[in-house]
Amino acid sequence: MATHPVTVRVVGTGLIGASLGIALSRKGFNVTLSDPSPTAARLARDLGAGEVADEAAEVPELVVVAAPPDVAAQVVVESLSRWPDAVVTDVASVKGAIADAVASAGGDLARYVGSHPMAGRERSGAGAARGDLFEGRAWVVVPTAVSRPEAVELVRQVAIAVGSAVSVMGAREHDAAVAVVSHVPQLAASLVAGRLRDVPDPAVALAGQGLRDVTRIAASDPHLWTQILAANATAVREVLTELRTDLDEVIEALNALETGDGRGALEVVNRTVGNGNAGQSRIPGKHGAARTAYATVVVMVPDTPGALGNLLTDMGDAGVNLEDLHLEHGLGQPFGLAEVSVVPGSVERLLQALDERGWRVHD
Amino acid sequence: MATHPVTVRVVGTGLIGASLGIALSRKGFNVTLSDPSPTAARLARDLGAGEVADEAAEVPELVVVAAPPDVAAQVVVESLSRWPDAVVTDVASVKGAIADAVASAGGDLARYVGSHPMAGRERSGAGAARGDLFEGRAWVVVPTAVSRPEAVELVRQVAIAVGSAVSVMGAREHDAAVAVVSHVPQLAASLVAGRLRDVPDPAVALAGQGLRDVTRIAASDPHLWTQILAANATAVREVLTELRTDLDEVIEALNALETGDGRGALEVVNRTVGNGNAGQSRIPGKHGAARTAYATVVVMVPDTPGALGNLLTDMGDAGVNLEDLHLEHGLGQPFGLAEVSVVPGSVERLLQALDERGWRVHD
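ok -> structure tokens follow
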């Protein structure tokens, strides 16, 4: 890392660009800003994201292209050409298509390194920017085959500077990864939720916490997801095709059970659910750490302001750290069930503490 | 409802049977217990579920068959025959197959009324029984076409007595409902999680909260789910087949985008995610009430015992009721993000209160 303040040009001052400008300025980087909308650039400046770039602006050592996904490749190519010594990165969530477009346009791939900061908010635009947007989030650094090591290192240092957990992988590897851990789960949630459209009210009224969890991300923005899924069409289609093969096998097995000749069908259903167990157990726990088998305690909590707070305060007083929390609201009841996860060694202490304080616990 | 204590025989003292015995005994019902395992019946008795039935036991007015799903129909038939004046219900989670089997065996359908108490725990057996297992949970009462009104009313009163939110529907309607709100979401979660089995570690490490939510129920018991899915094969297969049609359309659209001729493909992807929005918005909020559009505030919470409790206590002090809560743990960071949902009218008060108390809020 350079010993002088690194000069960074942020191109595109929406949520990600402006947030990055704020975070880097705070860390002593020398940030200049540009955006097709002068108002957006000035708003980002007013929020502390850096100075609005002009012709006299310092030549950047690093250019961060934070333009919308469908123009990112073009802006990367222009930036590589305009600043022939600068390292250029972009923040689009699908990487292969951008690197391919840069290569096709004859851009200098040695100075290009892709980025995917896995941070976002429900709101967009510079007005929603936050300097801590990247703290604790994954940031994937995606070099091309010919990216210079010092270019990769510069991008890595920027990601570390804003508090992200950095990993490095190739574009194909990255796009395949986000297809299976993000894009296909999104589509599955959308497809399951979509089936609820024409269901009678009394049926939807039987929805439980499982359905709520599976479909929570089905509330995501269609416009945004259309861009993402289109940009990663190949990798998403590959995983979806495998999933369809698994689905076909289940449908065939259920069909065999209906028509009576169900030989082997139960094995298929059992294996499908078992494979889900195996896959789910691979998802890392918090802090990217290896997954711990947490113990779960269910507590009845009155549905009044502060009641859940009192519960968690009592847990804190007992020295028990909460690892995860799920709320399940009673149907037509003035209370909810709080499912609290703790490390197994804490369960006895927790149960005793809650009992002493009058909580109704389902161990 | 009878004015004298109603006499109930619980046949099968596993988790559900024993819990029901405890709950009904507390409410003054006169409960006797039987189980193929005398030890299980005595354990349930020791837990307060009722008295172990003997030959001299009172003739029951209501028999609750809480046997495993694959023998429930047979036990219902035997019970209808053994106690010719009693109402008989069962607690299996799929209803059509049981009613059909009772009809085939010539059982008296006028005295049979199905039940589906939507309660359960991760643990099974009488040892895990709890008298409050049914409080605030849905309990679907499923009459046959010829069930006597007073038989339906007796079962309804039992469900109300143990604190459940009761609804009444036919077997086909019930089975179609649980297929779409429970069984298909379970399979979708299993299939998405199953795809993670062979994914490289660095890819799984990119898992975010969305994937965790979608796949949480993929950890469910394969043996139990094989029984459930097999019993509801027809209804599940129907919904899965519709879902496969939707999935095929998405795969075809992504294929069209890959091969260049993507005319109409973006519309398909956009519509799929949009349909998910529409379906998801139908899922009722807490208390079975119409869904409210809650406002969401994201707060940074140190990962120390009691910190989340302090946050919720501060919310309570400000008179703001928590409607829902999601935790997202930072990757490699000593804090998490708490996404708290409140009614929109409370947001300003909440933001001010949190600010005054020094919380870092992402509004």
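Residues 286-291 of chain B have pLDDT under 50 and may be disordered.
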